[in-house]
Amino acid sequence: MDASAATSALCALTVWEFGALALAAGVVGFSKTAVSGANTISLAVFAAVLPARASTGVLLPILIAGDVLAVLTYRRHAHWPTLWRLFPAVAAGVVLGTVFLMFADDAMMRTSIGAILLLMAAVTMWRRRSAAAGPPADGEGAAARATAGVAAPSYGVLGGFTTMVANAGGPVMSMYLLSAGFKKLSFLGTSAWFFLIVNTSKVPFSVGLGLIDGPSLLLDATLVLFVIPGALIGKACVNRINQRLFEQLVIGATVIGGLQLLLR
Questions:
Q1: Alpha-carbon span 18 to 184, nearest angstrom
Q2: For the chain, first and last CA: distance in Å?
Q3: The pTM is what?
Q4: Model confidence over 174-213: pLDDT tens digits?
Q5: Distance CA 237, CA 49 (A)
Q6: Other Cβ atoms within 10 Å of 105 Cβ, number
Q7: How far is residue 195 from each of residues 28, 44, 117, 173, 189, measured CA to CA in Å?
Q8: Maximum Cα–Cα distance for the chain, whole Å?
Q9: What's the Cα-to-Cα distance from 222 to each of 68, 77, 148, 167, 189, rounded to whole Å?
C-alpha cells in the first residue's frame, strides 16, 4: 500500500474503529505497568483496523509513551548488566527487521504480523508452563541469570527483529527475563528501560521507511491520551491481578488476532 492510500485509510476511521484503537492504546499502558507482553492484543487490533504497514508506525509512538510511564514507575528496579548483554544482539535484530520492511508489501506485512503473533502466543504458553514450576530459590537465581547470559544473543536477535517488524518483542523479552529468574519489580523495571531505549532507537528507521508521518502522528496525538489511564490501572492492579487468568486471555486474544490476519 502506498503512502497516499495509507493516509486515506488513517483519515477515514469510523467511530467504532477509533474506539477499538483507543481501547488498544489503553491496553498498551496497562501492559507496560502490569503484564509485560499483553500489548500483543493491541498489536492485533491495530493491524486489523489499519493497513498492516501503517499500523506499526502508528503504534510505535504509543508504545514509547507507555514505556516512559513504565520507567517513571519502575526506574529504580532495572538490572543494567542484563540490558547491556542484550543490546548488541537486539541492534542486529533491528537492522534485519529494517531490511525486511524495505521489501515487504502490505500483504506480506499482514501475514508476517499474524505469524509473529502466533509464534509469540506459543512462546508465552511455553513461558507459563516454565513458570508453573515456581520461582527459583535464592541460591538458584545467580545460576539462572548465568544461563540466560549465554542465551542472550539468540533472544536479543529475535527480540530486535520482532519488535522492528511488528512491535512484538514483549513476549520474547518476558521469556528471557523469566529464564533469568527475575522477581516481579526487577522484571518490570528491566523491561521498562529495555523497551524505552529500543523503541526510541527504532524511530529513525520507521521515519525513513515512511511508517511514521504527519497523519500517523496526528492520530497518535489523540490515542496517547488513552495510554495514561491504562498505565494507572495497571499500576493499581499489579499486586492484585490474577496473572494466570489474564495470561490465558492474552494468549486467546493473540491467537484469534493472528489467525484473523492470516486469513484476511
A1: 33
A2: 15
A3: 0.82
A4: 778 877 777 778 888 999 999 999 999 999 999 999 999 8
A5: 28
A6: 11
A7: 12, 19, 18, 9, 10
A8: 58
A9: 17, 31, 39, 20, 27
